[in-house]
Amino acid sequence: MNDRTAEKEREIQKEQKPSFHHLLRLFLYVFRATKGISCIYLGLFVLLSFLRPLIAEIWGRYISVVENAGNRVTEAALMLVLYWGISFAADLLESYLAPEGGGDFEQLDMIQANRQQELFKVHLLKKVNSVSPEYLEAPVMKDRMRQVFDFAGDSWNGINRKVMISGYVVVAKVISVLTIAAALYLYHPLLSILVLLAPLPTLYSVSLGEKLQFRFVKESTELQRETEYFEELLLSPAEKEIKTLGLHDFFYGKWKERADAYVIRQKKLIRNRALLQIVNSLFYNLAHVGGMVLAILLLAQGKLSLGAMSAVFAMTGTLITDSAQLIRAFGSFQAQKNRAAQFFDLMDLKEDASREPEKVLLHRAEAKGVKYRYPLTGRYTLKGVDFTLHPGEKVAFVGENGAGKSTFVKLLTGMLSPSEGRLLLNGKRMEDLHPESHFDAQSVVVQDPTHYETFTLYENVFLGETHRPYEEKTVQKALAFSGLASLENRLLGKYVGGTDLSGGQWQKLAIARAAYRNRDLIVLDEPTSNLDPLAETEIFKKYNSLAKDKTVIYVTHRISVAKLADRIIVFKNGKIEEDGTFDELMKLKGEFARLYEVQSQWYDR
């Protein structure tokens, strides 16, 4: 049978070969999305590219006028004023457009960068929401997403400076270089040829430097992620447990080992790029000096006037500078094709079918020969599960760790798709249903619920169903149901000045959220692991009474709680080992009876 997980693996592992096409596609993608501010920025760069050769030409003519002054003093004065006026405007514009510039245009840079970050994150978050959650099970996909998000948000080495501004510079400097080269050609062909050819070797070194930067980012992402994890661990509430166990030095050593390895790689990158920069400067200076020497020789041969030589000097300097900036910008721009391809690797992932959501009522759920393995792993977690769930049933899934209970629940709730076999809801394949339709039909409480901080207690409950108007009385009923009626409605989260809850209280809050959501299918995936057995039993009894006409799936390690279910499913080694009522399974004296005996101390109460 066809392994459908293999299709997702191919999508995850697929990396488009970086090309200039990806880069142009990315540039136009961002340009169209930020058209207004992008046009302003590009226009300013192009304006500057025309001002520099104009200044050089005015200076040359000024020298010619001064050389043959006579009665042309007024003309010389006007040309000098014009020269300094345009020079001042060009210097001011250049200082604002430079990355280290200050003033209104730098603010424009930040506005553009912020707009692009917002654009990217909106598109990326929408993309993440539109693809199968299964992709996120693969660490390589998480790394790829982290790299793309970092690229979008990096103010210095991100998309704003490395793609957009570099692209503007390339367009502007091409105009400038061609204009000046044409002017120099009119003075003497060798002048334009010399200054155009000399900086070309730097194109390779700039491109190489950017490739080194990309390789460093790609190879260091996992190392950086581990460093951040250990850093957060040492600064989080877990530090209390770490201190009591005497693990601070152990985790500090883990953090330092990875931080040092990251710094060593970073130092190597900086050293190599510094050497490349020295080579670049050498070529620039040689070309500049060569142009000046050639101009002096032409003056000595009478082929250039003093004014023309002055213009040539100015144009040569501008051309060398602009050629260098063009090559640097193009090298930087061109080197981002790797990241552009990486961005489209993510954006081109297959999305869940774009069907319209529909109201789904659970009548019957069936698993037929379901097998499942997580992407990029060879071992099957589920090895052929056959199961039928009828509406109104209260079913408990039990089994040891790794038996496949939670994985099967993820399949039933639509978070994963079978590698082999079929999952049917009301006779339809779950893959053929819109994901939102499936998610909307269920209330799910997981073992480690998310702590929605920066929201109040009541708002946390309201997050269970934000598509209907807020109902405070219903929120209070849900809190009472979960045992949190005595808590005040305060802001949650210490770092925002609110209060914190215990682990058990956070779990009860998640249960309140599910009660407020009030769906036909209720899935409780070990939601009470931080509660004592009595509290867990009480919660399950409440759900049974609350959900008389609803379907409830309860995943638990505590066999005593399974007594309260209409039906018990025992998982073992990725298969359903036993299926029946409590009394039926105890009479079998099989796996369930063994687990019951092992855990008997829990229910002698």
Automatic annotation (TrEMBL):
Localization, UniProt: Cell membrane
Pfam families tied to this protein: ABC_tran (PF00005)
ABC transmembrane type-1 domain span: 174-335
Transcription regulation in keyword set: no
Organism field: Fusicatenibacter faecihominis
TM region(s), chain numbering: 26-51, 165-185, 191-209, 274-300
Descriptive protein name: ABC transporter ATP-binding protein/permease
Keywords assigned by UniProt, alphabetized: ATP-binding, Membrane, Nucleotide-binding, Transmembrane, Transmembrane helix
Ranges where the ABC transporter domain occurs: 365-598
Recorded topology in the membrane: Multi-pass membrane protein
PROSITE patterns, sorted: ABC_TM1F, ABC_TRANSPORTER_1, ABC_TRANSPORTER_2
GO MF assignments: ABC-type oligopeptide transporter activity; ATP binding; ATP hydrolysis activity
GO CC field: plasma membrane
GTP-binding listed as a keyword: no
